[in-house]
Amino acid sequence: MTTEHHKIAKQRIFEAALALFARKGYAAVGVREIARKAEVNISMINYYFGEKAGILKAIINECYDQYFRTIKPVGDEDLPVETHVRKMVNTVVNFFRQNTELVIVAFDIIPLDIPEVMELKTKWITGIREGMANFRKKLGIDSQDIVQEGIGPTALIAVILNHFQSKYAAEQYPQFKEYAAQLNDEFYKKYIDALSDLFLYGYMGKKNKEEK
Amino acid sequence: MTTEHHKIAKQRIFEAALALFARKGYAAVGVREIARKAEVNISMINYYFGEKAGILKAIINECYDQYFRTIKPVGDEDLPVETHVRKMVNTVVNFFRQNTELVIVAFDIIPLDIPEVMELKTKWITGIREGMANFRKKLGIDSQDIVQEGIGPTALIAVILNHFQSKYAAEQYPQFKEYAAQLNDEFYKKYIDALSDLFLYGYMGKKNKEEK
DNA sequence: ATAATGTAAACGAACGATTGCTTAAAACAA
DNA sequence: TTGTTTTAAGCAATCGTTCGTTTACATTAT
Predict the structure, then answer these.
(1) Does strand D come within 7 Å of the CB of B31?
(2) pTM for this prediction
């Protein structure tokens, strides 16, 4: 029971902080606000996570770990390039959809002046990049070429992240909730196809395809 | 002289805040830090901008105004679609390059719980979308189709914004400065072409082009 | 010409509120 | 009892903002 209680309280803090960080950004959220939402005493945060930044570290670890474990096996599959790309887009979009708050907080680009956190993120990103080296190679991306690095998978993920940041923001504001409500299963089926098409054949190719 | 002095102090606050907001995010920066960097008394911030959020509003107005005035005339030009897209990509990338701090702060997606600021951004985005309606029409984008909205120009800007966020972050950290230094004129010439190619013909088209 | 008035810019000090975090004791389970 | 979990209270520091005052210069009146 004790262990159970333990987990529950820690989990509540984690989830409350995650939701608040996603909504307002790390710096804009205070520990008291987290404690209030988690229905927990303030000191519980330091008890379980050491410091405020400890929650963020936990979020980052959780997100990158799950992300890597999700896309790595897909990247290692042996499929024709086009099929492979489509499957990867599908995988990434679904992961972002199911873990929107996690990716918004963990994949946020604005640097925090907390060296430890920055190092943690760098470590993860480097690791994932190495783990996906084969997939990148298959796409013919030369890791030395910074132009190719700037587009390719990097660009794809930027687009997807941007979409879910916008979606999440829209869900908060009454005037945009109507839009957010349209983003259902049906939408994502089409979205994944359209995004794959765009990445594979571009805007002109996509246009030709539609005109056929 | 008085007016001259006025401009200088206000400008210093604006620029100091802009740099700090871009680096750390709005919420992570205090007015004292801004005042210190601007070499100005703390109370001058409220004197010139009313409140801390007033600086942010000024930044947002400055950015969107300049952005719209830059891309609008390009969007209204009468060019073949491909040429038009390439010119637009070139225009947007150069604008982001020359106004990196402005776009990082103003185009940041994470919502601030300052209703006034959110309304201001919404107003600008709506206006720009309307102003660029002809260009979107030319690309064959149906504004009602949220799938097409999610990719297209939205995706392109997301990619470019992501690049400059990464670049700006890299410039701050010693271990990445080497990378940031490579992002020179030569790089952006290639980057603009590669990004245009990707958007127009996709990854497969780009690959075919290179193999020729 | 000199003195009085007006005005905008800048200053240091302080306001109440909130920040992240710590402590010591109470409540609980084993 | 022993050891763990939860609590309330409080720490120093900082937050955004406002205060009354002073400086510097322009305008007006005498």
Answers:
(1) yes
(2) 0.92
